[in-house]
Structures are given as C-alpha cells and as structure tokens.
Amino acid sequence: MNHVFSFARSLPLSGRIGLGLVLFWLAVALVGPLLAPHPVGAFVDQDVFSPVTASFPLGSDYLGRDVLSRLMWGARYTVFLGAGAAMLACLIGTSLALTAAVRGGWVDEVLSRAMDTLISIPSKIFALVMVAAFGSSLGLLLTITAITYVPGNFRIARALAVNVVSLDFVTVAQARGERGLHIALREVLPNMIHPLLADFGLRFVFIVLLLSGLSFLGLGVQPPHADLGSLVRENMSGLVDGAPAIVVPAIAIATLTVGANLLIDSLKPVEKQG
Amino acid sequence: MSAHVSVRNLRIVAGSKAIVDGVSFEIARGKVLALIGESGSGKTTIALALMGHSRFGATISGEVLLGETRVDQLDEAGLQALRGRRVAYVAQSAASAFNPSRTIMSQVTEPLLVHRLASKADAEVRAVDLFRALALPFPESIGARYPHQLSGGQLQRLMAAMALITRPELVILDEPTTALDVTTQVEVLKAFKAAIASVGATAIYVSHDLAVVAQMADQILVLNQGRTKEQGAAEQILHAPTDDYTRTLMAAASPTERSAPAVVAGDALLKVEGVHAAYGRLPVLHDISLQLARGATLGVIGESGSGKSTLARVIAGLLPRSAGSVRLGGEELPKGIDGRSREQFRRVQLVFQNADTALNPVHTVGQTLARPLAFYHGLKGAEAKAEVARLLDMIRLPADLATRNVRQLSGGQKQRVNLARALAARPDVLLCDEVTSALDTVVGAAILELIDELRRELGIATVFISHDISTVRAFCDQVLVLYGGTAVEQADAAAFARGVHHPYTDLLMHSVPEMRAGWLEQAVTRKAVLPSEVGDDLCRFLPRCPVAIDGRCNAEAAPLRAGDGFALLCHHELQTLRELTA
C-alpha cells in the first residue's frame, strides 16, 4: 500500500488525476452492482428521460430505468472487456513483433505479411461475421476485439523493436551468445515500454468505441445489460432533451479514457529519469 | 588596430550552473583564435554566443562585440540579419547538417538568397568560385548533386562554402575535421585555410586537437570547465605552456611509448588464416591472415571503410566469414554465432566504439556487469555483487556506481563500464573497436593505459582497431594496415618503427598533423600518378598511389614482399620503397 502512495506522490498533477479516475472506475466496476440501487433491467420510473431528481440521481433512460444503476452495472463491461481486450491485443501484438524483430529474415517477413492480411479485413464486418457464426458471448467479444487490434499494435511494436535491435548493445548481447528470449525481454522490451503503454491507452479507447458500436448493432453486450457505449447509443433520442441519460454515460467514457491516458502519459519514459 | 571581435567577461548560465564563467578575449581582423578544451569545457557554447545564440534555457551576460555591434544586445531581427551574413558557422558533422532532399547548390546559395544579397544566377557563380577555391572536384557540376552522393570530406568543404559565400566577417568552425580521416583532414584543412584567407575573415576554430589547432590558429585560448586556463599566441602555448592543465593536454596528445612491451610467449592464441568476408555481394575483407599470442596486442589501422571493424565482427562471428579459418587456441571457431558454444563466446569479447549505444540505457551499471557473470560463470547474489565491486575497482570506478543507471555516467565512465563488461567474461581475446575515438584525449589516454595494464596482468590478447596511427604505434606489438579490405602491410612494432612502409601506410603517417606551426604548408598532398583502374586482383591502393608503376601496378597483382619482421604488398622493391618513403 505504501508502495502505491509513494508511486502516486512521484506522479505529476495530471498523472494523479489520471490515477484517481482510473482507480475510481476500477472501484465502480468491481463493486458497482453491489451498490446499485436498482436491478439493471428494472423499469422504475413512470416517465422516460426524466431529469436529475432525488430518487433518480442521474435521471432515467428511454425505458424509464434508473441511469445510475445501469451505469454501475455497465462500467464493468467497458472496464474489464475493454482493458482485457486491449491487454490481450498488446500482449499478442508485442510478442509477435519482438519475435519478428529479433529473428528477422523470413520469420519477420511471414509475420508482417500475415498481419498485413489481418489489417486489411474490415473490423466491423469481421465482428459481424464472427458474431453471426458463433452467437454473441463475452468470450467471443473479447477475442474479436483483441484480434482486431493485434495488427496495429504489432506494426508499432515492430517498428520500435527494429530500431532498438539495430543498436550496439543488442549486437553485444548477440556476440555474448545470448538467446533470442533474453535479447527480446531484457535488452529490447524495456527500451520500448513507454511508447507501448501510450499505444495501449489508444487501443483501449478504440476498443471501447468498437464495443459500443457492436452493442448498437445488437451484437455486443446483450440487453438488459449494457456497456457504457451502448448506454450512450440506446439513449440517443434523449439528446434533444439534454437528458442526463445520454450525457452521463458519455462523461463516464470520457473520464475513463482520458484518465487512463493521463496516467500512462505521466509515467516517465526511462530516458528522462535521473 | 583595434580588435575586430572582442569578448569581455562572458558568462553563460544554465539553471544555477555557469557553463562559461568570465571568459574574455580579443581577435584582430583576419586572425584565427582557437578555443581548446575537453568536452564540457564550454568551447562550443562560447562559439555560439558570438552569434548571439544560447541553448534553450541558458542566459548570456557580459559583452560580445563584433566590430561596433553589441551582439549580446541584438533583438531577434538584429540577430537574423547578423547570422549567416556577418557571422557564419561550420558545424562538426556536415553529413547531418545538410538537408538530404535538396541539392547542394540550393543549400550553399541559400544564405545569399535569404539575405537578398544576390540574384540566383550571381549566387551560383559565386558558389562555383568557392567550390574551386576549396579544391572540390567538378566545381561546375557538383552543385547539382545531393548530399548522399558526396563523401564526408567533400561535404565538410561544401559546408565551408555555405558559410563563406556571404563573405562573412567572422567564421566559426566547430570541430570541422574531427569526424574525418587523417588523409582527408589534411586536404580539408588546407582548403579551409586558403578560403578563409581569401575572404579575409576573422575566424574562431573550436577543437580538442592541439596538432590541428597548431596549423590553423594565431592565438589559442585553453578552456577547462568554462574558465580560461591560459591564453596567448599559438607559438607560446604550444611550445612553452605555463599552465599545468595545458601541459596535461599536450602530454595526452602525444602518446608515450608503452613502459613494458609484451612478453610474447608460446604459440599463437588467435590465428586468422585467409579470411574473406562480404556484406551481401559487396566484398569487404580480402584474404586476411594474422596471428596473436597471449598477452600481445595487434593494432589494426585504416581509414573508414577499410574493413577494420568488419574484421572484429568476423572474428566475433557477428558477420560469418565466406572463406578462411579463425582458430582460437588451436580450435576452429564456427563461422557465425550459430553453433558457437558458450565457452567459445566467452573467450572472444568485443568492445564497441560508442559506449553510449553499446550499453543498454535501461540497465544499471551493476546489472550490465552482472549479466556476463551470471551467463558465463553462473555467479549470482552476493558472489556476483562482490565480483561487480571487484570489476569496478579494476576499472577505477567507485563501487557505489553499481546502482546508477548507465545514462548517468560521463563518456569516460561509460567506456570503462563497456570495457569492464567484456572483462567480466574473463576473455582470452579482447577486440577493441576504436574504443578511444569518441573520448577526449585525456580520458582516452587513461582508457588506453587501463587496457594495457589489464592486458599485462591478465594476459589477454588484444586486437586494437584504430584510425589513429600514432596511438597504434605507441601501444601495439604488431601492426596490420588495411586498405579496401586488403592487408597491405603487416609488421611487428620494431620493424614498423624501422620504417619500410607501403605507400599507403606512408601516406597515413604523413597525414597525422604535427604539433608545430607550418606543418600544413609543408605537408604535400600526394596525387595519384595513374588514372584510377578497377580490377579485382590489382593493388587496391592504385587509384590513390603516388608512386604507382605504369604497366605493372595496373596490370598484375602486387607481390608479397617480406623482410625482417614485416611483410607488405607492393610492386616496388623494398630498397626502392625505403628510398621513396624516407
């Protein structure tokens, strides 16, 4: 715990704000459903798109459901599905990129062309086909979104890794007789971690958008559950009234993604330390 | 005559640290002042201050007078009118100072056009005149080329052309020949000197090389840590320095003979025979053979592109040889790094030129040194820690440096750590690739001394690759001279000192500036006597050879001529060579 506090103290103000927002949303995602005043699909309001009142702190949605409750239930899909898919995408993409950069030659060629092929498939159509074939489930959504963002991460990570691999200390390691795994993980990866984190932040935002897009088409998280993106989409008709039902989930997405990126940007790159 | 440039009590502060503190000097019109010092001494900072420029966050105080103009008080518009017109700057690395996507002519004439001093046509005429004055090849057409089509020496001269085209009053030359080969340096220095004199400009020459400065300067100012150590006429500083620091610089510039020559005992430890190597289809090494005994040092000399670094890479297995054999203690080493055993890796260690890139910036000194210990010797925990401390002690760095990040070290410290990492493997052969060329003379001399001491104590055979012939001469037991990937001469130290040399070696030796004024004027740039010929078997040096024999050198391969302790490839008889190179 002390470690967390000293870490927080070492961050600049923007980083602390980011950290605070990320922790807040993590907490909501973890315990939200326990604290939510109403069940996720309960119709509790007589009116639709009602404004902020004492009984409905964030108003009600287009079917008269409590927005606060739906938000608290929905946050976990966006946070865990989004972050999970982004992590999976970055893990796969970066591993393949390191393999390509360290091995070089035909390995690099095969991997790069395979990624080029994958990148040429339109992500939404790909998702549609997959969902149509296998039916929508959380596991499938995670897989689809991860696969969609692997090639982008691979491209960036490979470009970074190829630059690092050309440096003398990698040659020194090769001349020392080091195996590829050591070179990839100990010599190359630490030198590209910061741009990779920034890339992770971007991918996370994209994935939240892709998930809400899928939900809009009815292929994502299935009703009565909804992630933050689908909360925005389903309440779109409330835009003209300025209903909190559409404003609040939008703000939620914004704070979550901006918070994550503020936090990542404030982690000092290695070269600026000391 | 009043001074043309006068600087009084110049002080440049960045943050709370004074980079330059209380420096004053005056230069008469048309004279050359040299600023000398190690890196970090503030010499470039002073030079830039004369253009009214300071790096971000630094403030200039004091008085900088150019003619009647107070440079330090000019506003942005005044500075814009000054720079490139009255004061011009020639940077160290011309290769990175040119825009690769524009032609030479458009870049050289730019100062004139920006300041609206001439029409495009006039500017181009002036540029061609300058190209001619700077002894550039094809002065009429060279302007149409792009920077990547020209050599480093040519670019450096073109950079001077860019600076001189506005006929500035003051030219600032910032280490303009440091990145060049010695043979190129002579030509560039000559061209600079003539061109500056013809424009009649006052010049400031920034350098760390005393011998070069001796050729160029009328006055010398010695700097250390932003303070003036000594200042005076060039003759006096070079021949009767009064300050201790100047004396240290002078001593480091001329390497002293090694105290104890190697005790070369037993059979050859490293044996390279008939090695050929190529990058793709481009051949870089041609039939190289060498032998090295335990504790001995072999110096490999050559210009850039001669294949000297490639030789180290081939021995280390980083570039697989295409023919020939490399034996270590009688055991043949596999061609590439695939198939070499960990023990074979351990016995051959490579130390790179540039410690900035050779050390992984995310690791600490301790991590850097501990890796080979764990990898080769299985040392872990307290044992490894003790060994790291011992290594740091051996390279004379304090033990508490182990927890520091390698980024936080100075250039000299980095190079020591770089060396210690190789020593951690307890190697039999150490391949040192230009280990001192990125360092200041004083620091470099200390590193050399360290290598020599370790070699004697640990009995490591060293291959010492360098472009600096005087260092190699003072430091090595054997010398191998490479030209275009061919070993044109090979000799032991005694024979090398006695002095029958290949014409190329001779050219190299005569291109090293001597620390006396007037050397440059005497140095003859030897021109090739035969037009350039290309042939696989012919002597590679033929296109540049001043003593080539028509009908033989351009017709057949050069024979190997061996004498007492040396061998070289040349058509001339040894006796003739002795006379030619005397």
Automatic annotation (TrEMBL), chain A:
Predominant location: membrane
A GO cellular component entry from the record: plasma membrane
SUPFAM superfamilies referenced in this protein's UniProt entry, alphabetically: MetI-like (SSF161098)
UniProt keyword annotation of Transmembrane present: yes
Localization per record: Cell membrane
Topological type in the membrane: Multi-pass membrane protein
Transmembrane segments: 77-104, 125-150, 196-222, 242-264
UniProt GO BP: transmembrane transport
Swiss-Prot/TrEMBL keywords: Cell membrane, Membrane, Transmembrane, Transmembrane helix, Transport
Domain ABC transmembrane type-1: 75-264
UniProt xrefs under InterPro entries: BP-dependent_transpt_permease, MetI-like, MetI-like_sf
Record-stated family: Belongs to the binding-protein-dependent transport system permease family.
The protein, known as: Peptide/nickel transport system permease protein
Gene source species: Novosphingobium taihuense
TrEMBL record, chain B:
Coiled coil, from the record: none
Molecular function in Gene Ontology: ATP binding; ATP hydrolysis activity
Membrane topology of this protein: Peripheral membrane protein
A Pfam family the protein falls into: ABC_tran
Keywords: ATP-binding, Nucleotide-binding, Transport
Localization of this protein: Cell inner membrane
ABC transporter domain ranges (all copies): 5-250, 270-509
Top-level lineage group: Bacteria
Keyword Ribonucleoprotein: no
Gene Ontology cellular component list: plasma membrane
GO terms under biological process: peptide transport; transmembrane transport
Entry keyword ATP-binding: yes
Principal place of residence: membrane
Family to which this protein belongs: Belongs to the ABC transporter superfamily.
The protein's name: Peptide/nickel transport system ATP-binding protein
Naturally occurring in which organism (per UniProt): Novosphingobium taihuense
Taxonomic path: Bacteria, Pseudomonadati, Pseudomonadota, Alphaproteobacteria, Sphingomonadales
